[in-house]
Amino acid sequence: MAVTVLLLIVSNCFMTVAWYGNLKFPDARLWLVILASWSIALVEYCFAVPANRWGYTHGMSGGQLKITQEVITLIVFMLFATFVLKEPIGWRYLGAMVCIAGAAAFMFAGRT
Questions:
Q1: 5-46: per-residue pLDDT in tens?
Q2: Roughly what angle, to the nearest 10 degrees, separates helices 91-108 and 62-83?
Q3: What is the dihedral of CA 80, 97, 38, 43, to 10 degrees?
Q4: Which residues contact 88 (CB under 8 A, 6 or more apart)?
Q5: 61: which residues sit within 8 A by CB, 6+ positions away?
Q6: Which of 41, 45, 50, 59 could form an SS bridge with 18, CB 3.0 to 4.6 Å?
Q7: Is it the case that residue 1 has pLDDT exceeding 70?
Q8: CA neighbours closer than 13 Å in the CB half-sphere of residue 31
Q9: How far apart are alpha carbons 89 and 102 in whole angstroms?
């Protein structure tokens, strides 16, 4: 599971930059932003696909993989929003994290 989580963290770092990095460049041409985002997303897929394959073949269910990815996505985005977009982490972020942590607990309950 550690390999899966590590690959998903790397994957999510790339995907967050691909999706939200362009917000720092509001004057950039849209076609250029799309091209850059797709280029970054290609690298993201090079980590996400092996992460999911590894996790699935080593005992994680599809649902467990998805909820793990969602937890990682929220953590990575919170860091990105704070340090790159300069947005404060408020109660809504923390509430969302509690809800996703609860969903993860349900998905992993009773699994060894």
A1: 999 999 999 999 999 999 999 999 999 999 999 999 999 999
A2: 160
A3: 80
A4: 82
A5: 107, 111
A6: 41
A7: yes
A8: 0
A9: 19
